[in-house]
Amino acid sequence: MVEKLQLLINTSMECKMRNIVLAALILLSCQFSWASDSNKSHNTNDKDPVNITYQFAIYLIPTCGKDPATTVKQHAQQYLPSFAIKADVSDARKKPLLDIHIITNVQTEYTPPDEESLHYFGRGIDTDTGKKLQKSKMAIILSFSYPQDYVLSGMSEALSFTNKVAETCKGVIWDETTREAFSPDAWHERRIARWGKDGPRISDHTVIHAYKNNELIRAISLGMQKFNLPDIVVNDFTWTNNNQMANLINIIGQSMLEGSKINKTHQLNVNIHEMRNESLKKEVLSSLKENGTARAMIPLKQTSPEEGDPDNFLLEIDFDPQVGNGLQEKQETFISQFFGSEDKVIYVKHDEEIRAASEEARKKLPKLKQDFNKGLEPGEFIYLKAPFKTPDDSNEWMWIEVIAWNKRIKGILQNEPYHIPTLRAGAEVYVSEADIFDYLRNFPDGTTEGNETSKLIQAFEDRQKTNNQTGRSE
Question: Fewer CB within 10 Å: C terminus or N terminus of the chain?
């Protein structure tokens, strides 16, 4: 199972600052309660029932008639039956509220995403539309607010209403919380059509940004505040585990959306077997390795925001209770238990063919080192196979993911050792370039380069099995 993982290209693209001030509406940030009573409202201001607020925008290409506000209000009467228009009521704190704001100088007040950003965060937007968007002069800002009781019904109405306005005006939809731009068709497909009888799937309404933070990777969700939930952070993992961490963030979000509470010891009960959303349940369970449990009490801890993070309460997954000496070992322990793992040992003698393939691989090391230190693309990483001494003075060859490459190579061990009791998968290790046996370069699109020796080793193992069956020896 692979959920959405956004790869940040740079921080300037991640968050465009806008200076619009909505004078008629006070936007309240989602305040997640960190009280010991997990059954209390997520909103710390219990006197004010309006605790969910968010904003969608529609960039007009080129305009939407002479009076876009009238068009919006007409659609609201049909597609927002539970909402009141702010200008039409004096006090609507106890029911859903829509505030409409028309911007006529978009380029200075609500800058649209540029074409490079659209390449990564545009959904269903072709090149021609992307170019037209850069010249947009007007935008409709739709600000929604409602009490917790409307968390799902209010969102459902807001999604359909926004889609209808965008279709009528032939505009591009912008989700301010996830920083994504949508064509009306893509919005309907991703946000509306997949909302089934078992409720929404949180990953359809949020994104995950993952980016290199020093030597390792940081991931954070965006968009959870639309459901009055905290955004989730994972710190200091390897690119190898990006899909598992993205899946874990989405699973935690889905569990909270479906009502799982954080207990007094700040743990969240997650059990895929009991999840109501059938599509996510089937995907996770079908992707588990044989020993994956798909259930855990997951500790969460409050964490401080970094530049570019969403304006929301943030909770970090706390791996500290897991078995292991360092954070990455503890992460590997959790991943192996929750999702399962599989590893095997092949006992092989390095024949001339294998040694020749290894020498060819070693010729690529200077270029790999140069590329690594110049900076790889987001989501790109390099494995190196190196020997580790066993207690009987033989070698166990295992892969590491490179995190620093200088005189010595620093990496995170990717295999669970069979014959070295002092080592665990996830351990931070150092190896010498002179000892490297092979490499595997993993590109962001899923393609790979290298690892030619493994093909020969697998062929050796296959011959051994055949010989064992026939009684021959090699």
Answer: C
How does pLDDT run across 250-263, given as a tens digit for each residue?
999 999 999 999 99
Residue 16 located in a structural domain: no
For the chain, the domain total comes to 3
Domain of 71, in residue numbers: 49-193
**Same domain flag for 226 and 291:** yes
Please tell me the distance from the alpha carbon of residue 115 to that of residue 130, in angstroms, as a whole number: 6
**Structural element, H or E, at residue 447:** none
The mean predicted confidence, pLDDT, of the chain is: 86
DSSP-derived secondary structure for 276-296: S-HHHHHHHHHH--TT---EE
3-state secondary structure of 470: helix
Q: Quick one: pLDDT at residue 468?
A: 56
Confirm if 376 and 398 have CB atoms less than 8 A apart. Answer: no
Encoded tokens for 398? 């295992």
Model pLDDT for residues 87-110, shown as the tens digit of each residue: 554 444 578 999 999 999 999 999
Token pair belonging to 453: 């020796």
Q: Identify whether the C-beta of residue 4 lies closer than 8 Å to the C-beta of residue 203.
A: yes
The verdict on 89 and 147 lying in the same domain is yes
Model confidence pLDDT, tens digit, residues 396-434: 999 999 999 999 999 999 999 999 999 999 999 999 999
HEC string of 87-152? Answer: HHCCCCCCCCEEEEEEECCHHHHCCCCCHHHHHHHEECCCHHHHHHHCCCCEEEEEEEEECHHHCC
* Domain co-membership, 332 together with 408: no
